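Below is a filled-in request sheet from our internal design queue. Each sheet records the structural input a requester submitted and the sequence that came back. We keep these sheets so that new team members can see what a complete request looks like end to end.

REQUESTER: design group, bay 2
PRIORITY: normal
MODE: inverse folding
CHAIN LENGTH: 303
BACKBONE (tokenized):
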């Protein structure tokens, strides 16, 4: 049962033990994973990926090609799951929606002047409504980091709440751009603001700056989700994005997810990887598990 939500005082500083977080995060990389568990983890990872194209040179042809890959990841490996979603700019939502058809793969769209967030409230709302009206199932918004870093937490909260309302039935992922927030204290505060303002997911990064997702940052966000759930009864999703290109690292993230939030979050409704290049490495590892040899990267598309 959902509990009554009491909005906290965001002016109270968050206090995160950075050394402790880094030590806990490192432990997840030392877990031993047996072959059968590894295969299941790789298949789950594949099903949690948001395949993404967010470039100025994006075209309808490129988006259609990405959608084709999303539905047909490797013809030589029958029974593979699909990815979770294809993520595009609002102008490409119609193209992606049509290309994916009834595949069950979601269409996600970035919005709110992605990746900088430097635009007016009116433009951000129009950007969101364009994506939703054209059929986006999910919207990935960016917070106004400048306003957050100057301590204008109410502005950030209100902006997220307004975008959430504009999303209608579409799920909202709120991108914190943790590489610009610098400290884990700020990552925790931004996570709390996003969740109390109505986010369905919290997401680390746009993938446009470095550092993007890291395990310590993701752990802080997972622990924020856990505490929010204990206080409100509301389940929030998590999406680390950027910098996760290897299967081994993705499996470490899944271990951390399972041990921090538990089985209820171990599915693509509540956890995503924003890492298109990860898909090819997972496919290579799965073929290695199945055949005993690695396939050349030439067997996989570069999208």
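RETURNED SEQUENCE:
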């Amino acid at each position: 049962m959902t509990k009554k939500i009491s909005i906290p005082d965001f002016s109270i500083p968050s206090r995160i033990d950075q050394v402790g977080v880094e030590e806990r995060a490192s432990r997840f990389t030392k877990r031993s994973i047996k072959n059968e568990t590894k295969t299941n983890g790789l298949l789950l990872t594949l099903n949690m990926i948001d395949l993404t194209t967010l470039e100025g040179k994006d075209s309808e042809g490129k988006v259609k090609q990405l959608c084709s890959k999303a539905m047909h990841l490797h013809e030589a490996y029958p029974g593979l799951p699909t990815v979770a979603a294809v993520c595009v700019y609002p102008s490409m939502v119609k193209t992606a929606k049509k290309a994916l058809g009834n595949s069950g793969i979601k269409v996600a769209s970035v919005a709110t002047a992605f990746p900088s967030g430097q635009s007016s409230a009116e433009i951000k709302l129009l950007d969101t409504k364009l994506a939703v009206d054209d059929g986006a199932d999910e919207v990935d918004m960016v917070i106004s980091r400048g306003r957050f870093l100057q301590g204008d937490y109410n502005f950030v909260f209100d902006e997220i709440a307004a975008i959430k309302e504009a999303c209608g039935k579409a799920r909202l992922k709120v991108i914190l751009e943790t590489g610009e927030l610098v400290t884990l204290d700020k990552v925790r505060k931004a996570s709390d603001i996003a969740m109390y303002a109505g986010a369905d997911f919290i997401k680390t990064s746009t993938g446009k700056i470095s550092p993007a997702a890291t395990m310590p940052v993701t752990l802080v966000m997972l622990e924020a989700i856990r505490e929010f759930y204990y206080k409100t009864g509301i389940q929030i999703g998590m999406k680390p994005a950027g910098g996760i290109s290897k299967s081994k690292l993705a499996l470490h993230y899944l271990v951390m997810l399972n041990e921090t939030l538990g089985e209820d979050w171990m599915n693509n409704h509540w956890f995503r990887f924003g890492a298109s290049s990860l898909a090819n490495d997972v496919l290579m590892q799965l073929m290695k598990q199945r055949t005993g040899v690695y396939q050349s990267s030439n067997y996989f598309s570069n999208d």
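SHEET NOTES:
- The chain has one domain: 21-290.
- DSSP finds twelve helices and seven strands in the chain.
FILED BY: M.R.
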